[in-house]
Amino acid sequence: MKAAPFEYVRAASLDEAVEALSGTPDARVLAGGQSLVPLLNLRQVRPTLVVDINRVDELSFLRKENGQLEIGALTRHRVLETSETVRSEAPLLAEAIGYVGHPAIRNRGTLGGSLAHADPAAELPAVMIALDAGFTARGPQGERVIAARDFFLGPHRTALGPGELLTRISVPSHRGGWAVEQLSRRSRDLALVAVFATVTLSGDVCETARIAVAGAGPTPIRATGAEEALVGRALTDDVIALAAELAAAATDPPDDLHAPADYRREMAAVLTRRAISRAKEGA
Ligand SMILES: Cc1cc2nc3c(=O)[nH]c(=O)nc-3n(C[C@H](O)[C@H](O)[C@H](O)COP(=O)(O)OP(=O)(O)OC[C@H]3O[C@@H](n4cnc5c(N)ncnc54)[C@H](O)[C@@H]3O)c2cc1C
Predict the structure, then answer these.
(1) Per-residue pLDDT at 189
(2) Which residues line ligand 1 (CB under 6 A)?
(3) Which of 9, 14, 29 to mutate to test the pocket of ligand 1 (most atoms within 8 A of CB)?
(4) What are the residues whose beta carbons fall under 8 Å from the beta carbon of 224, sequence distance 6 or more?
(5) Are 168 and 181 members of one domain?
(6) What is the pLDDT of residues 43-71, one digit of tens each?
(7) Which residue's CA is minimally distant from atom 3 of ligand 1?
(8) How far is the CA of 210 from the centre of ligand 1 (A)?
(9) pLDDT confidence of 256, banded at 50, 70, 90?
(10) What share of the chain is helix, strand, coil (3-state, %, to 5)?
(11) What is the pLDDT of residue 187?
């Protein structure tokens, strides 16, 4: 199938992109096209206007600033995957990126595109929730910052308003141990369930813990109850097992042709247990 007809604007600057998007509420931004182009071709989306941001160089950057990573929305997955700065400042993000599709997809796909696409099974939205990232959006009313935890509203639904586009992703640096545990039907398929964890220790005692689960609800889920069960305690097998059960209880998995809900919930517990154990070893 081919896409339904649409107007096409290739923006040369952020201002041009914002101007082109304003006034056409159903307009879509084209970044890497790895999700948008299939949706267009299957006619699952039929925008009247597509605004191509691939030549907006000011949206493509990666730098460390004030203890956090500042990443332009148009930064390709491959740039993040191969960056020493990402590896040292946000190793959870560095590990998770390798799970996004295949190299060809990571060569074109962008961080902003993955987040705006808001697939509940995608890795990067869950990573951003785990790391308490902030997203900068620009639209006709100017700029605003949206916390990652407030950004994802449902499957493929975000807090972005009409005419707004993501411009920058701010990811606080993290230290300690981390782990990604993912279950998918085939290697590098979208996750049936995935768990992203970071842990810091003081001696044997857990100082901080961050746990996010993908593929187990309409949005990525931050398992705060599980985190609270870890902080201030030695991470014994029993403590980790309790946190894993709490993480699973916080999920609201879909029951679909890929896997039944009960199976996903049980796997959320298994993967959380593994992720915390590995993060503890690395902390
Ligand atoms: C075979 C295959 C396998 C895949 N496997 C995975 C996987 O394992 N994990 C995973 O997470 N994803 C996977 N994907 C999906 C894909 O990799 C990501 O969704 C993609 O990287 C999104 O980025 P993009 O730049 O290509 O976005 P695009 O396709 O260009 O855009 C996606 C959506 O985001 C919007 N958008 C893009 N940029 C912005 C912006 N700056 N501001 C506002 N809106 C914006 C677009 O309008 C569109 O609605 C796979 C895709 C394919 C084709």
Answers:
(1) 83
(2) 28-36, 38, 73, 100-101, 105, 108-110, 112-114, 116-117, 119, 122-124, 160, 165-166, 188, 190
(3) 29
(4) 250
(5) no
(6) 999 999 999 999 999 999 999 999 899 99
(7) 101
(8) 25
(9) confident
(10) 35, 30, 35
(11) 80
Q: pLDDT tens-digit profile of 202-255?
A: 999 999 999 999 999 999 999 999 999 999 999 999 999 999 999 999 999 989
Q: Are residues 12 and 94 in the same domain?
A: no
| Closest C-alpha among 170, 103, 94, 104 to residue 137 | 170
Please check whether residues 166 and 185 belong to one and the same domain. Answer: no
* Position in ligand 1 atom list of the atom nearest CA 191: 8
CB contact at 8 A, 193 and 216: yes
Instruction: Check whether residue 115 and residue 12 sit in a common domain.
Output: no
What's the confidence (pLDDT) of residue 260? 93
Structural domain that includes position 34: 7-52
**What pairs with residue 64 in β-bridges?**
69
Q: How far is the CA of 231 from the centre of ligand 1 (A)?
A: 35
Mark whether 269 and 202 lie in a shared domain.
Answer: yes
Residue 103: give its domain's CATH number. 3.30.465.10
| Cα of 108 from ligand 1 centre, angstroms | 9
Residue 148: half-sphere exposure toward Cβ, Cα within 13 Å: 23
Structure tokens at 122: 């995608």
Does residue 212 fall inside a structural domain? yes
Cα 52 to chain centroid, rounded: 22
The residue nearest atom 39 of ligand 1, judged by CA position, is: 113
> Could you tell me if residue 142 is inside a domain?
yes
Boundary residue ending a domain (172, 196, 223): 172
Residue 119 CA to ligand 1 centre (angstroms): 9
In a domain, residue 2? The reply is: no
Give the per-residue pLDDT at 26.
94
pLDDT over 90 at 1, yes or no: no
Q: Is residue 1 part of a domain?
A: no
Same structural domain, 218 and 261: yes
